[in-house]
Design goal:
It is a single chain. The chain has 248 residues and is of the alpha+beta class. It contains eight helices and seven strands; from the N terminus they run ββαβββββααααααα. The longest helix is centred in the last third of the chain and has 18 residues, at 230-247.
Length: 248
């Protein structure tokens, strides 16, 4: 397979960026998208050029590091992570645009790498349990109703890749934040900080410069783990409840 790649190149956060065009040949249908980029970088290095910087880690669809906008879609044309996207999703002779996440809260570090530490700060704002628990209890020591356990697990699947932000026309982080809040708040272990958690995490999300949610639904469509759009409504209910309680 022969492809034309138009890749965003940017030396650092301060430097201006632009699309650079490359031709790659001998690409197998069975290659992942990141393996295709590895092939491109091998050619660039052999030619004495600077390789394209892109984020990756586990390459198993678990860590969420492989964040790329491919032909305008977060993670590409399939509902999966970029590392699990295979080149069989493209055709011989295709032109593929590869860009970083586009959001003011995710500044570009270099080329296709962005700084997503804003997500870490949102989690840090509410991801603590203050109740002393001592040693780790037995897994079945605290009974959790099956519907609550399923709800928590559904939201715990969020890998924090940022596809929801990249896909949202407003650059909103509501789906990510709601997944983290709903995961913790529905469990009995998260009950002591239920109100403060949602208030602190939503406030931090706003401080980080993410856009507002207008429920376009692009976030849920792009999410590789299938976090549902109603997650945002559930978080909003938590936030309204906590806000009313704080005003009393």
């Amino acid at each position: 397979m022969k492809l034309t790649l138009r890749v965003w190149r940017q030396k650092n956060a301060e430097a201006p960026g632009a699309m650079a065009t490359y031709e790659v040949e001998g690409i197998s249908d069975d290659m992942s998208f990141l393996e295709m980029l590895d092939t491109l970088n091998e050619e660039l290095i052999l030619g004495g050029d600077d390789p394209v910087a892109f984020d990756h880690d586990c390459r198993e669809g678990i860590c969420g590091a492989c964040s790329l906008v491919i032909n305008g879609d977060a993670h590409g044309p399939e509902r999966t992570t970029t590392c699990q996207l295979h080149m069989r999703s493209f055709k011989d002779g295709d032109t593929i645009d590869v860009e970083p996440w586009r959001a003011s809260a995710f500044p570009v570090v270099k080329d296709l790498v962005v700084d997503r530490s804003a997500f870490d700060r949102i989690i840090q704002a509410g991801g603590y349990i203050t109740a002393p628990t001592g040693a780790a209890p037995e897994a079945h020591a605290t009974a959790v109703p099956k519907p609550d356990a399923d709800f928590a697990f559904e939201h715990a699947e969020c890998i924090g890749c940022g596809a929801c932000v990249a896909a949202c026309p407003n650059g909103s982080a509501m789906l990510f934040t709601s997944a983290k809040i709903n995961h913790l708040n529905v469990l009995p272990q998260g009950a002591p900080e239920r109100e403060t958690r949602v208030l602190d995490m939503v406030a931090t999300m706003d401080e980080e410069g993410f856009g507002g949610c207008t429920l376009t639904g692009e976030c849920a469509t792009a999410c590789p783990k299938g976090i549902p759009l109603p997650s945002i409504a559930a978080m909003n209910k938590e936030w309204l409840r906590a806000t009313r309680k704080a005003r009393r």
